[in-house]
Amino acid sequence: MRIALLSRNPRLYSSSKLIEAARARGHEIDVIDPIRCVLVVSRGGHRMFESSERAGKSPRDLVGYDVVIPRIGASITDYGLAVLAHFERAGVRTVNSAQAIASSRDKLRALQRLSAHDIGIPRTALARDPRSVRDAIAAVGGTPVIIKLLQGTQGVGVMIADSVEAVESMLDTLWGLGQNIILQEFISESRGQDIRALVVGGKLVAAMERRAREGEFRSNLHRGGAGTRIEPSAEVTHAAIESTRIMGLDVAGVDLLASNEGPRVIEINSSPGLRGIEAASGIDIATRIIGHAESLVAERSVHTH
Prior knowledge:
The protein contains nine helices and 16 strands. It is of the alpha+beta class and about 300 residues long.
């Protein structure tokens, strides 16, 4: 099997583990930096090649792959998804589709879809007019309130405001920078803890509880949080698997808060980091992802013969 791994840096833990797992199972895997891909679209056809790093060397046409594993960072979402869509147009299977990744990256759109399928989420409001801020705060239960950029990962662009005046000041600054934001209720009973559940191919393969470091409300491991393996409840398992299915993702990290009304999904990550959850759980998730890629290719083989 020939695998295309879309990643800007093969030395990152998640990418290197996927490379190692693929080779251990006898597959050929190429790391392709989306930024170095050139897309050519013409009437009735298309082509994609990777430009050479060395002068005088011919570019490499990106053809002959069986499956794509996208690890597209938030900073290159649009270009990365254009590259992924090019592979899809060529008929290559993808572990996560371009459309599913795009939907999951927009926090409000993702929550709208989950809410439509009766998945528990925090009360959330989108506001854009300064005159509507106080009503929006009231709609999510008052202060303290969580403020999030519509697009952001690893806790970047997530803030907490303890007063209406603080919310108004933050929004004034963020809107002035051209950012769209959402307001979310602060679930006090979660106390700086959340759950990261890793779903692969419709199965929850690992879960950990993340606890924020002292003085921090965000529990992301990139923010100094600590992760501990847990056996997720039936409610958490159902919410994580259903959320991933609703978003059309095959591989996802689902973040949930424990509330008095049951688990609430706060975010779905289509390129979840593997280091923290593999360390906490002791589970080789990279190999599970490669195994799922194998099943996608086998499924296609059955349908084409």
